[in-house]
Structures are given as C-alpha cells and as structure tokens.
Write a structure and sequence with these properties.
This protein is an alpha+beta fold. It has a single domain, classed as outer membrane lipoprotein receptor (LolB), chain A, CATH 2.50.20.10. A 14-stranded antiparallel sheet has the order 1-8-9-10-11-12-13-14-2-3-4-5-6-7, with helices on both faces. It contains six helices and 14 strands. Helix 1 crosses helix 4.
Length: 298
C-alpha cells in the first residue's frame, strides 16, 4: 500500500507539472500546505530506528500476511485543483509484480494515460504525445507502482534513517529519510501514535525537469482488511491538487488486456529497437609530446 501511495503521489505531481498548469519557475520547490507540516522541537526521548517505524506502519495498515494475499487493486479517484477551480478523475489498476495502468482526465489537460506491462513504461497525452519512459523516469514509475512492495522495503532502500519529529496537522510524526538503490532520496512522515503514513516529500524527474512535491495523507479507511487514505493533498510547482478516493477494490479480476501496450506504444518501441545504437564516443587522441633536446656534449 505504501508503494501505491508513492505511485499516486508520483502521478499527481506529474499532472500538477503539466505545462498547462505550470506556474512561475518550473523548478521551484514545493511549498508545504500552510499549517499542515510544522517542524517540531527536537524530541527529548531517543528516536526509534527507521526499521521499527516501517514495521509499525505495516502492522497498522493490516499486517504483512494480509498484504501478501492481495493480487490486484483498482482505485477510482476524484481530483480537484481549488486554485484553478478545476475537477477531474483518475482510475488506477495494479497487479503484481509491477503491472499498472493509470488514466487521468482533467480540464485543460485532457486525458493522460500511463502504464507498464512490467517492463516497458509509457505515457500518452495531448500535451506530450506518446513516449516511452527511460532512465530515472522509468525507475521512478516502476518504484511507485511496484505491487505490495511494502514488506520488501529493505530491498528497495539502501539506507533508512529517522531524523526527527515534525507536526502534521498538530500531531507529532516521525521523519524518516530514505535513499533508494539508485540514490533517489525520499522523506516519509509517520504518525507517532498510530504508525500510519501521513506525509511524503520527494523529487521526481519529468519532461519539465525535476518536480518537487509534498503529499499529506488523511482519512484512513479499511478496504478488504487493509487501511488506506481516502484523502491526499499533493502540492507541486506551487499548485495543490486534492485527491479523494471514490471507490477502492482489492482482488477484483482485471483483464490482462488492461496492461497490454497500446498499438502506438508498440510501434514506437519497434522503431526504437530498429534504430542502430548511437556510435560510441571515440577516446580523445593523445597530445604528442616533444622529446627533450639532447644534452650538449663537452
């Protein structure tokens, strides 16, 4: 579920960063929602280990055994940008190991589709056309949409450190700094009492460069024995998007065609595979050196 939240935050931050809504400097860092995240004084008691916080979170949302039983996830969401007076919808489908399809429709942006058959990651929209994600963008999508990777968090992160306590909506939350195997950094905030994930800060790569975002999770409800937040507020590029869950289903069959690569994606992939690889950059030619003059004979 934690990876689902990461994936949702990733998709929302990319939508916020679409050119139609970019405000000011596109590389400007996200600003925290006023009153939502407040640095707290350094706690007097020792901070718990990050692993203990992660394990408490897993227990709080339903436990590892229940998470391992889930074989599919479908979530329908409503989206709203209050500052722009715009509303939209998002539908997400997921199956293990990393098959995912997300469809977002928002006024002035139109339909944005993103998907993965577990290997190829693609995106299609009126703004950017159809493209195949590579490098850091692909890695971020697969990380965010990796199915039920919560209990495999030690394989995803090479370091986890509890760095302090902050207040989320006036409630203390432990701050955990995480670094992935490819050196991507992410900050997660867990409610000190309940153990639930209540905040996340990350920077994702996109066509517009790096997009910093902050997400606040709230209104946790139980779905099929697993707790998930029904309200998410994502702030990126000076824009806030409020996302609320309309319907969530676990283990409802999803047709395999849902994750199949669209025809235009297959054509683009075939074209890229047919293109000859770029020639290797030749090594620089060494600069000839002038031999020293012979010494005078006396």
């Amino acid at each position: 579920m934690n990876r689902f939240l990461s994936g949702l935050a990733l998709v929302s931050s990319i939508v916020c960063g679409a050119p139609a809504f970019a405000a000011g400097d596109p590389a400007a860092p996200a600003q925290a929602t006023p009153g939502a995240t407040t640095p707290a004084a350094k706690p007097a008691e020792p901070l718990p280990e990050a692993k203990a916080i992660m394990e408490k979170f897993l227990a709080a949302i339903g436990g590892v055994e229940r998470l391992k039983q889930v074989k599919s996830r479908q979530v329908a969401l409503n989206m709203e940008m209050p500052s722009a007076g715009l509303k939209g919808r998002m539908q997400i489908y997921q199956m293990p190991p990393a098959m995912a399809y997300a469809e977002t429709e928002l006024a002035q942006i139109g339909k944005v589709m993103q998907g993965s058959d577990g290997e190829t990651v693609w995106e299609s929209s009126l703004i950017s056309g159809t493209r195949i994600l590579k490098g850091a963008e692909k890695a971020a999508f697969l990380r965010g949409m990796r199915f039920n990777a919560d209990y495999d968090y030690q394989d995803l992160f090479k370091s986890m450190t509890t760095t302090g306590v902050e207040a989320i909506d006036k409630r203390p939350a432990y701050v955990v700094e995480l670094v992935t195997s490819d050196d991507t950094k992410e900050t997660r905030l867990f409610d000190k009492e309940s153990g639930l994930l209540v905040g996340m800060r990350s920077t994702n790569k996109s066509q517009m460069g790096e997009i910093a975002s902050e997400t606040i999770f709230s209104d946790y409800r139980e779905v099929g024995g697993i707790k998930m937040p029904f309200r998410m507020a994502v702030k990126a590029m000076q824009i806030e998007m409020i996302t609320t869950v309309e319907k969530a289903e676990l283990d409802t069959p999803i047709p395999a065609e849902r994750f199949a690569l669209p025809d235009e994606v297959q054509a683009l992939l075939a074209k890229q595979q047919a293109e000859p690889p770029a020639p290797a950059t030749p090594a620089p030619t060494p600069t000839p050196t002038t031999p020293p003059a012979p010494a005078d004979k006396k």
